[in-house]
Prior knowledge:
The chain is α/β, with parallel strands linked by helices. It has two domains: 4-92, no CATH class; 102-211, no CATH class. The protein is 37% helix and 21% strand. A four-stranded mixed sheet has the order 8-7-6-9. The protein has a three-stranded mixed sheet with strand order 1-2-3, covered by helices on one side. α1 packs antiparallel against α3 and α5 (152-166) crosses α6.
Amino acid sequence: xxxxxxxxxxxxxxxxxxxxxxxxxxxxxxxxxxxxxxxxxxxxxxxxxxxxxxxxxxxxxxxxxxxxxxxxxxxxxxxxxxxxxxxxxxxxxxxxxxxxxxxxxxxxxxxxxxxxxxxxxxxxxxxxxxxxxxxxxxxxxxxxxxxxxxxxxxxxxxxxxxxxxxxxxxxxxxxxxxxxxxxxxxxxxxxxxxxxxxxxxxxxxxxxxxxx
Length: 212
């Protein structure tokens, strides 16, 4: 466990096949990616990876702890010890994708341009952000079935959407409380802000926190 050298030795030995991933058959590609995940499990259970699409300059391989703060140090250690390999860019944690996102989770589709949020005070944990997120319950489910704001999958989907907007690290280390509510008829009068303001709000919050 936690042997970065062993992981990178395997990766380097299989670098050519991994680089040519797009030229493999579906079965070969799935088998190779399963081996990559096995090597990652051998290094540290609980980590996973996201393989980016190839570009003219190469491909990004992102290592993630899926928001588990206790495993963050292993993601950092693995990425910091990565060899310098042509074609590859190794990244720690899922990065922020910004605004105007459409995130699919389970039977839900979250359109950030149609969502709103307000800050909630975390009195016991002032260094963390509390959020109330308003979602259009009538249209968020792809299958059209009724949705309740206390639906666990809906709440997880909202969290996944926030993670996509601000990145894995900030989401895991800053989010203290999340509440999901139905979208009011007049969200601005109710004190909500557009969801796409969230990345800027998070940056503002971090600056204010660091001043104290």
